């Protein structure tokens, strides 16, 4: 197991000003960080990757489809092409950063709804785009971990039944799913059964409490979640995901309007100890 932190708790764009906090993560004992790549150039992520590596940390990435006008699922050829170009940019940044995994909901724009679930045509277009991404990822030596979101954030991929079926259609060893306990807590009747159904398609495990604060302080039974993940053979990237009110650019997407942890030191140290202890005990 490699324990990391999703750096969206710090900002939507990581720069030199965040390096002291990343260094602190290394001191606490984290193995890697998950870098949000939402904007910027591959050159920036190459620089950032070198800085992170110099601290002894591995690199992972999380990315989204940020705009309705660049949707890889669209039936409009121009919009779809802009979406595919954006997916290519995501991989440009990942390769520059030196990412071991690329996760996040890089399937459809967050907050865009059609009034129905995904159509067969949308699924087929998504599969085609993600197969191409998986082929490139395999050549680059990293893995994709597409993230399901709850129904209030996307209509495309909500449950592990959908996620498993979708990953089976993509049908590539470099393509899998980022299982997120926050979203699953909303959408799944039984997280343990959901993890069992997902099985070996779990490429990343996001540890996120039901209020998106410090894990272990809320309602999710992480011992059982981790035990279920181990039971399907998962021993990969485990990532703390928490959000604070200090990142205004994310507030609209995450619906976080209040502080969910007292300070970063408490978030990082308490979460590290809780996840390590729970993993060992599970």
Automatic annotation (TrEMBL):
Residues 23-248 form the Xylose isomerase-like TIM barrel domain. Keywords: Isomerase, Plasmid. It comes from the Bacteria. GO terms for molecular function: isomerase activity. It holds the Pfam family AP_endonuc_2. This is Sugar phosphate isomerase/epimerase. It comes from Qingshengfaniella alkalisoli.
């Amino acid at each position: 197991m490699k324990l990391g932190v999703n750096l969206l708790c710090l900002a939507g764009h990581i720069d030199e000003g965040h390096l002291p906090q990343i260094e602190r993560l290394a001191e606490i004992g984290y193995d890697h960080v998950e870098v949000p790549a939402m904007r910027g150039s591959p050159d920036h992520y190459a620089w950032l990757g070198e800085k992170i590596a110099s601290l002894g940390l591995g690199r992972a990435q999380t990315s989204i489809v940020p705009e309705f006008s660049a949707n890889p699922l669209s039936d409009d050829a121009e919009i779809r092409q802009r979406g595919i170009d954006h997916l290519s940019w995501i991989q440009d940044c990942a390769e520059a950063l030196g990412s071991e995994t690329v996760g996040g909901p890089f399937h459809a724009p967050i907050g865009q709804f059609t009034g129905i679930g995904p159509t067969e045509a949308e699924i087929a277009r998504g599969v085609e785009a993600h197969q191409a991404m998986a082929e490139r990822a395999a050549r680059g030596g990293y893995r994709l971990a597409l993230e399901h979101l709850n129904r209030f954030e996307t209509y495309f991929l909500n449950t592990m039944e959908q996620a498993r079926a979708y990953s089976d259609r993509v049908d590539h060893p470099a393509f899998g799913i980022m299982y997120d306990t926050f979203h699953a807590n909303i959408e799944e009747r039984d997280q343990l059964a959901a993890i069992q159904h997902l099985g070996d398609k779990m490429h990343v495990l996001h540890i996120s409490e039901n209020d998106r604060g410090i894990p272990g302080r809320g309602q999710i039974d992480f011992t059982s979640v981790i035990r279920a993940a181990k039971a399907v053979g998962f021993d990969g990237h485990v990532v703390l995901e928490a959000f604070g009110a200090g990142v205004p650019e994310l507030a609209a997407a995450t619906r976080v309007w209040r502080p969910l942890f007292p300070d970063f030191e408490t978030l990082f140290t308490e979460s590290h100890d809780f996840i390590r202890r729970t993993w060992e005990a599970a």
